[in-house]
User: Fold this.
Amino acid sequence: MNFLNWLKNLLEEMFKTAEAEPTPKIDGHLVVIIGHGMNSDKGAYGIAPLSMFETDYNKLVASDMASYAKKLGLPCTVLSKTGKTTYGVGAEATRTVKEAKKGCVIELHFNSYNGAASGTETLYDRDEKDNKLFAEICQKKMVALFGRPNRGVKDRTVGRGGSNLDSVKVTSCLVEPLFGDNKIDAGLLKTRRKEYAACLVDAAAEYIGGL
Ligand SMILES: [Zn+2]
Assistant:
């Protein structure tokens, strides 16, 4: 390659980078609630190779989500329950989304049962009209990422998670990506963490974009 070609390639590369820089801003707000964390409640324990409690793992996921949302241009707020009440956190999440006019809330958990159960599920509260739709968007992306059994979206009235979701009065869902007490699932939670965080932000962006 001669000098002029080299210079041309260099300028093209620089131009591409400059073009890619200003990311479009998404008009809306994502609120991420880290599940558990009140008093001594750390949630379920994720076995090796994850080797951490639900709330500690989800702090990392929430931080990954905030970084990825920033790249995407989607305003994002992370709420922890530590030192607060479920109602207080729900009210804060609701207010944040309402101020932005458009948006949604995702509460982070992971499942635990008997070591043998595995797979992905998303819980929702049917009180808000879009909750099932939003739960389905999150569920689809998590199932595609992890490739584990699709346990579906579940109305909170048939199981746990209700009190958390009930305190949020805007579009929301509660994700149970995998089982922390299942060895394969725990491995995926560890190795695919950043992709998992990104797929949830993508789900929020897809939902907000469709509003
Ligand atoms: Zn949980």
User: Anything to note?
Assistant: The chain is about 45% helix and 20% strand.
